[in-house]
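Please fill in the sequence for the structure shown.

STRUCTURE ENCODING:
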């Protein structure tokens, strides 16, 4: 199974981000990007890639422990960035003193859970983010204008209180632009 650990933004945050993405999609070069769908938006904490079915029970047990040891977080989407020239994302910060401390601990714990069951390390160095778009193959598109346009973006704060294990079903139809489908496999309250 292709798996990752994530936090899910609430509807008001999705609405605010959707308005921002609608503006981004008017920029030159936006048609060279594959934009992710709002119903699939999530904050990636750790990406595990292909995990054998036999390792999933241990991974879920480890993630449940990580969630229990964590605490609910006051989060906010603010600004954005890019992974090289391949992906555009919204940044996530803690909306409290000690920015990124608890969020970084949770991301590290989620990544460690994956390593302990043999999943490869996260391809992006465990940086929590929400992917907005990916560059289409063969369409060199500079992402700097998009990250600049995201610089002043701030979404409402929200209490993130659940850690979720998600399965990614990759498109199989071969239809250009088809998006993966995400399935929540398990979810645990933070701190409880």
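FILLED IN BY: designer on duty
SEQUENCE:
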């Amino acid at each position: 199974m292709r798996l990752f650990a994530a936090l899910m933004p609430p509807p008001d945050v999705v609405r605010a981000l959707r308005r921002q993405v609608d503006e981004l999609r008017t920029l030159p070069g936006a048609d060279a990007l594959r934009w992710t769908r709002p119903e699939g938006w999530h904050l990636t904490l750790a990406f595990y890639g292909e995990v054998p079915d036999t390792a999933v029970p241990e991974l879920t047990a480890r993630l449940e422990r990580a969630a229990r040891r964590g605490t609910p977080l006051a989060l906010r989407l603010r600004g954005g960035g890019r992974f090289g020239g391949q992906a555009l994302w919204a940044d996530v910060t803690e909306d409290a003193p000690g920015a990124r401390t608890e969020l970084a601990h949770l991301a590290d714990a989620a990544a460690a859970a994956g390593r302990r069951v043999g999943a490869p390390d996260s391809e992006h160095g465990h940086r929590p983010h929400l992917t907005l778009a990916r560059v289409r193959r063969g369409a060199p598109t500079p992402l700097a204008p998009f990250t600049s346009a995201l610089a002043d973006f701030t979404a409402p704060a929200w209490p993130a209180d659940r850690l979720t294990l998600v399965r990614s079903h990759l498109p199989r139809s071969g239809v250009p632009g088809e998006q993966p489908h995400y399935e929540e496999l398990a979810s645990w309250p933070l701190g409880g």
